[in-house]
Amino acid sequence: MENKTQKILVIEDDPNYFVLLNERLSQDHSLGFELIRSKQMQSGLERLREGDIDAVLLDLTLPDSQGLQSFLTVHQAFPTVAVIILTGSDDDELASQAIAQGAQDYLLKGSFDRDLLVKSIRYSISRNQIQAQLQKYYIETEASKRALQDRSERFRSLVSNIPGAVYRFTVGIHGEGIVEFISDMIQEVTGEPAESFMGKDLSHYQDLILPQDLPMVKEAFSKAAVRGESFGIDYRIRHRGGDFRWVHDQGRGMKSPTGKISYVDGVIFDITERTKEKERFNQLVSYDALTGLPNRELFVDRLNQVLTQNQRKKESCAVLVLDLDHFKRINDTLGHVVGDQLIKAVSVRILKTVYNTDTVTRISGGNFMVLLPNLGEHENAENAENVANKIMMAFKAPFHIDEHELFTTCSIGIAIAPGDGATSEVLMKNADAAMHLSKERGKDRYQLFSSAITNNSFEKLVLENSLRRALERKEFKLYYQPQFDLRAGKVTGVEALIRWQHPELGFVPPMEFIPIAEDTGLIHAIGEWVLQTACEQKMAWNKMGFTDLKVAVNLSARQFHYANLVDLITGVLKKVGLDPRGLELELTESTLMDRLEETNATLHKLKEAGMSISIDDFGTGYSSLMYLKTFPIDTIKIDKSFVQDVTTDADDSAITQAIISMAHSLKLDVVAEGVETLPQLELLRAQGCDIIQGYLFSKPIPAADIAPLLADGAAKKVLSGMK
User: Fold this and answer.
1) Do 559 and 640 belong together in one domain?
2) pLDDT in tens, 351-385
3) pLDDT at residue 471 above 60?
């Protein structure tokens, strides 16, 4: 007798996936499948009403239906039809939710071969039929109140040819369960005969489940036993032979005629080979052979999915392109074997730096890409910059490869969607362009993409020419960000921050023009203007009675190593008439660690002249305790990349606590930068932080807006208004 053709409805709006599925299933007539396509949920439901569909392959992103609701719509309308989820990204949580609600399986688009697809469809149809038969049987036996023995005999007859272990356990008053029935197939899964489970409580079976999977199983059983929910879960179970098996357990709580949950019924399928097959296939086609990271194709697929989702949600994402500096030199001198080992070590460090929701891929050689899928509703460059900073910080420690101790840095380019590109191709191209610009500007740094990079050579020249005239045209302005002293309960300092308002280009970020100023030597003239303007403003505040206020000015590496730096600063102070104790100089860790003897001598001269010294962005460089003890430092500023996640990331919290404790042991003050929320403030206060700086208290503001914050009680009033 000829087997009946099984009709598979594919509800999918992308014609490419349907063509792929049709090629793998329909064109081989020996499989006995006929594929039918619906482009939208509504047309799919209309086709299902004809009553001849055996299974549905369902995309969760449709023009007229989204997410889990798409599955629920189909399942609730046609509960007897097997549904397999098609998902474009490895969304285990969403897939688990769908399976828990009654979906039979889920498959990743583009990541399955024909054998895997055929097995999934056939198993799903089989499971669905079994569940329908069992449900009918349970209703009949409950209604007739037949004896336990009769039910067991009918069970055995019904399930003898089913490729899975069918079970029923009774539900006690408190949700506990006793195994009333389990079919002989359980022996193939566990190595133990069905008799060893019959009549015993669930703990005997649960003892075989791997400990890391057991909480999930208990939770699913409990919800089924107490609330009658359905579940579908994959977990691992020990086999008596010593290995473990992957199983798919699908069940539901069953109500008696009185409405109480009396039983939990289900089927356990051994999916070990199928799981291994899926893993092997995914590894082969979607991952880099050297590092095990997703390859370019998988990265692009995930990026496209994120762009589609974010467009609907009006959210942004970022792509970071990272390239090792001087990697070719390592390959040429030490060989490709060492180079490959370095690449593997680099990939591990990057993975430890980013979140689990981010995607890291290796493109080629020492070139990597990172996808940050969700930056929120606004194109928040700061979040992407924080990740870039953390990655660069991870490169500060040496890599130990065989007998070699290797030091390497990286250059990073950042592009943010949709502003820097609405498609994956444009976004990656622009991130790559930004990375190359960061290499041009000295390597070991990151660069945000901007429109200026598109025509880099010409527009860089335009920007440089404009920068040369910006001082004489008075296009620069200083803004000041207050620093709130938690001990004194008032503002005790401000940080001077330069802003450039270009007449045609508008606001030009310091990250774009400061590197050009350093490359061209213009940084010295601009730095002197910043210093003198800040000192003059400090004198104005002194005349208003705010003599205790300290003004902090940043010094770039090139400024700091200028031969006449000390004479320049003392000359400005003398010209303005400012007491040196009112000025604080901020330097980054990397600046301090360059030319150590010269740095130490310069710092002591500045300190002897009466100025304060602070380390900016502390934690992102590589200062050691010995140098902190040697250098005449007054203040440490914790970098905002640690403060951002201090309330949610245990590592960042531990780092801030360690920095504060270390600084206090050295009699140094601590400033936390980037404080934006009350929970951050309260945690830092509890850790003993001295001063906070960030948008929670105030963004950088013009000098005229600072004075009201300095009046008695004004700062406390601002802070109390946040609570």
Assistant:
1) yes
2) 999 988 899 999 888 999 999 998 876 667 788 99
3) yes
Spatial neighbors of 104 by CB under 8 A, at least 6 apart, are 55, 82, 83, 84, 123, 124, 125, 127, 128, 232, 250
Domain membership of residue 144 (yes or no) is: no
- 571: containing domain: 531-720
**Residue 23 pLDDT class (50, 70, 90 cuts):** confident
Q: Are residues 252 and 299 in the same domain?
A: no
| Token pair in block for residue 61 | 């992103």
CATH of the domain at 550: 3.20.20.450
Same domain, 309 and 272: no
Residues 268 and 310 placed together within one structural domain of the fold: no
Q: Name beta bridge partners: 705.
A: none
Closest CA to 655 of 615, 679, 619, 689: 619
Question: Domains in the chain: how many in total?
Answer: 4
What does the block give as tokens for 140? 């009949």
**Ranges assigned E (strand) in 200-315:** 230-238, 244-255, 261-270
Looking only at Cα atoms, what is the longest distance across the chain?
A: 105
Q: Which long-range contacts (CB under 8 A, 24 or more apart) does 216-222 make?
A: 217/249, 220/100, 220/249, 220/251, 221/177, 221/264, 222/175
Copy the structure tokens of residue 620. 């992102």
Q: Tens digit of pLDDT for each residue in 590-640? A: 777 777 788 889 999 999 999 999 998 887 655 556 667 788 999 999 988
CA distances from 184 to 130, 147, 210, 300, 336 (A): 16, 21, 22, 46, 55
The CATH number for 392's domain is 3.30.70.270
Predicted local distance difference test score (pLDDT) of residue 288:
84
The answer to whether 534 touches 553, Cβ cutoff 8 Å, is yes
